[in-house]
Automatic annotation (TrEMBL):
It comes from Streptomyces diastatochromogenes. This is Beta-ketoacyl synthase-like N-terminal domain-containing protein. Residues 50-179 form the Beta-ketoacyl synthase-like N-terminal domain. GO terms for molecular function: acyltransferase activity, transferring groups other than amino-acyl groups. Coiled coil: none annotated. Pfam families: ketoacyl-synt (PF00109). InterPro entries: Ketoacyl_synth_N (IPR014030), Thiolase-like (IPR016039).
Length: 326
């Protein structure tokens, strides 16, 4: 499975180059909540159809637009999008309205629509006319890497020719209530374009694995997931490793153990902020950005994500190190 392109709307800016330069240079962001600067849905997407659109949907629609071409067969193009629990703001809005208003039909339909967990993926597909597989995965920080495994199965079984995979998280008042204080809350959307084969791809996804930490030992779960994907290459060939950045150092210790010779890139929580389900897709974009900045050369990269609720995921890429910005 080949990554042929990526795109990201992030606290670094609305341009892919903003993210690439920011993450490679380690440019610090302001303290406090970190929205995507200067992102106004109506300015990016127009007036029609955006009035009742959630911010997460707008981020997803705008990012997906950069990865689609006029030549794409939309009937064979799908979308696999990650989330933590959907739009927390719209879910709470529905709950509030159901208690404050006398009848269920007094609640605005658009509010109910945006509260559905698969709303962002569905509306993104409808906006762009994508009629291939459409799926929403909810697995916290591990979602992005798990989505790669899901997409791989879809492509290998011939369900689609092209897939967009990633995640979107919005910065709303409701989401601030779930912050754990370990890093500033941030929003954004990162997507990669995946094809079964391509001669001009940026990187090949060699393996993806996920492990459930039944005993609560996330460090061991990360080690197991990493060992599974590294069967496709040897640890001493890994050029860079990057983790999602959990509240403790279990993940970073696991990376240092399994790939002691690799360059460990800063976790996204340190540079970008807490983007929850979007951690994995932003990790992919960060690895590709670092590879491009290092010059063209074949490299192997290890990515891990650890969700404190007990899920660890890992992926290994063979990166070409060519220009990666769409």
């Amino acid at each position: 499975m080949i990554i042929t392109a990526w795109s990201a709307l992030s606290p670094y800016g609305t341009d892919d180059q903003d993210f690439a330069q920011g993450t490679v240079s380690g440019r610090p962001l302001p303290d406090g909540p970190r929205p995507v600067p200067d992102f106004e849905p109506r300015e990016f997407l127009g007036q029609q159809g955006t009035r009742a659109m959630s911010r997460a949907t707008a981020l997803s629609v705008a990012t997906a637009a950069r990865l689609l071409t006029e030549d794409d067969d939309r009937a064979r193009t799908g979308l696999v999008l990650g989330t933590t629990n959907g739009s927390a703001q719209n879910i709470l809005d529905v709950n509030r309205a159901s208690l404050q208003r006398g009848k269920p039909y007094h609640i605005q339909p658009t509010v109910i629509q945006n509260a559905a967990m698969n709303s962002v993926a569905s509306q993104t597909a409808l906006w762009h006319g994508l009629r291939g597989p459409n799926a929403t995965l909810a697995g916290g920080r591990s979602t992005g890497l798990s989505a790669l495994g899901y997409c791989r199965r879809l492509l290998l079984t011939g369900r689609a020719d092209t897939l967009l995979a990633g995640a979107a998280e919005e910065l709303t008042e409701a989401r601030t209530w779930v912050g754990d204080g370990t890093a500033p809350l941030a929003e954004g959307c990162a997507l990669v374009r995946l094809e079964r084969s391509a001669s001009d791809g940026l990187a090949e996804v060699l393996a993806v694995a996920s492990v459930v930490a039944v005993d609560g030992d996330l460090g061991t779960a990360v080690l197991k997931a990493a060992d599974r994907v590294l069967t496709r290459t040897s640890p001493d060939r890994v050029w860079a490793a990057v983790g999602s950045g959990t509240s403790d150092d279990a993940e970073s210790k696991a990376l240092a153990t399994v790939c002691p010779e690799a360059t460990v890139l800063p976790p996204l929580t340190e540079s970008l902020g807490q983007v929850h389900a979007a951690s994995g897709p932003f990790q992919l974009a960060a690895v590709l950005s670092h590879a491009a900045a290092s010059g063209p050369a074949e490299r192997f990269a290890l990515l891990t994500s650890a969700e404190p609720q007990g899920i660890a995921a890992a992926a290994v890429l063979r990166v070409k190190g060519e220009t990666v910005v769409v």
